[in-house]
Design a protein that fits this description.
heterodimer, A: mainly alpha, two-stranded antiparallel sheet, 14 helices, 2 strands, globular, B: about 350 residues, 5-stranded antiparallel β-sheet, 10 helices, 18 strands
Chain lengths: ~300, ~350
Amino acid sequence: MRALSTFLYRRPNFYVLLLLIPPLLWFGTVYLGSLFTLLAQSMYAIDEFTAKVVYEPTLATYKQVVTQPANVDIILRTLSMAIAVTIACGLIALPIANYMVRYASARGRALLYVGVMLPMWMSYLVKVYAWRLILAKQGILSWMLDTVGLGAGLDAVLRIPGIGGPSLSSSYIGMFIVFVYMWLPFMILPLAAALEKVPESLLQASADLGARPVQTFRTVTLPLALPGLAAGSVFTFSLTLGDYIIPSVVGAPGYFIGMMVYQQQGTAGNIPLAAAFSVVPIVLIMVYLTLAKRAGAFDAL
Amino acid sequence: MTAAIEFLDVSRVYGEVHAVDRVSLTVQAGEFFAMLGPSGSGKTTCLRLIAGFETPDTGSVLLNGRDVTDDPPYARDVNTVFQDYALFPHMSVLENVAYGPRVRGQRKDDWRRRAHEMLELVQLGHFAQRRPSQLSGGQRQRVSLARALINQPRVLLLDEPLGALDLKLREEMQIELKNLQRRLGITFVFVTHDQGEALSMADRVAVFNRGRIEQLDTPRTLYTRPATAFVARFVGGANVVAGELAQRLSGRAEPFAVRAENIRLRAPAAPADANSMSCLGDVADVQYHGAMSRWQVQLESGEVFAAALPDVSSNGDFKIGARVRLEWSRADAVPLTAAE
């Protein structure tokens, strides 16, 4: 036993390799393996008459995804929602995270962290269905707005073409609200972590040199929060792109990428199309990360 | 001379702790002023009160004769060199230095030229495009200095600016800072816990203890004529004699201080001198410091006395445990106004 310990201690590389074999096997086979199987599936196509998969490499399925107007609609719809949700999460999370880190007392901060994370500990489905009730035509929200005399305002919002609808629970606005609610913690937490790393003295130095609070926020706080904002936005962006439950429970009937994947690999039995659709978010996120990097979001890391 | 900074009965309380306790002081324009004290003595809080990062609970702060008690930092004509330098990590050295003029809306040509001038002033002209993380501690210190001076403040505040530097660099920067202050004629307020730094650089020193100023004087007066036991110990490293022993040695009950380098060691049987005070003790420890040695001598009454003797002293042959006679001139016993 002692000899073995000595042997391993003197050969740290071998020791590390030994420790890494199980996670590497897991990561390699289960994670990367399934990802590549998926990618491989997307390179096949389905025969339209027999409805069977033809195992010959082709880009026909991808062509179908990016050229058929219905499919392009789905991608654009999902992408627009993901962008809108990400922006909204960023705008809401920034003041909350800033308050948590800079102004709240130690106790208040702990309470806020728990408050932010508490919803994450509850069942996802329960929350989505709860929101459907909140947003329903005669639901809590419309009742509250009616009570305080803002019912007309809600109706006006719902009349907006494209994103409106008969009720919040059956409109894109409602879906947007639920998405923002769901993913907000994923934005707040990395943002708070980034802001916590900014020393108080930097903000004082900025004020000392003559910057008003707004200038300090723009020139010091925001650039240094950018890595957190980037990390959070990767979460909100990718979670929105891949989700299929929220669009199927709340909102307008238009399809989203996640729903398409679910349906194609399930009822429709078109595995190649499902695979090709699930590649779309991967590509979109890669494009997003490239743009974020080019914009300097990771410079302060 | 006009007053650059005035504190009128200023207090700052955190919960139960009086960080600054009814402090009044005046810093003259063009003065190199040091605030000296151990950590938690209130010196840094005073600096932050001048900068505007803190507001006093009572009293008022005046800058150049104007009451700025409620003014935010960005409305005050002072700039700060921070202890951790507080350089903006996402900006280049040039952008850091140019920050002040930029947020004040100076034109790009102007702020670029000014920032380059300031970098030349602190001998960092070649480092303009670097990031702060690529600089050494001493270089960051200079950038921080250039950034604070570019606004041409009437008062420059320095919060333990040399604390993070190694000894040699610290001594160089002390001289450099002193020269810079003379050249620019700006009021410097310097916070430090290092009495050597305060004595060697400042025109006047305020010694802080428990939120109050114990003594405010020139370095020479502080060192030779400490007013209190705290100042005698903290600034001069002096021996404070109080109570019964003071009564026996000087014939009066008031405490007095004797600096270590004014004490001579003699053989126990050596004849007493009418102009001296003396007492017996045992050598407890000797530390060699090169130019001199520090001796710890335990008196019969229990007190430990420190004596600093030139290393070539003939007293060098006392061993640890040896009985010695401590002796000093009556003139070297400095009466202290306040007891412990």
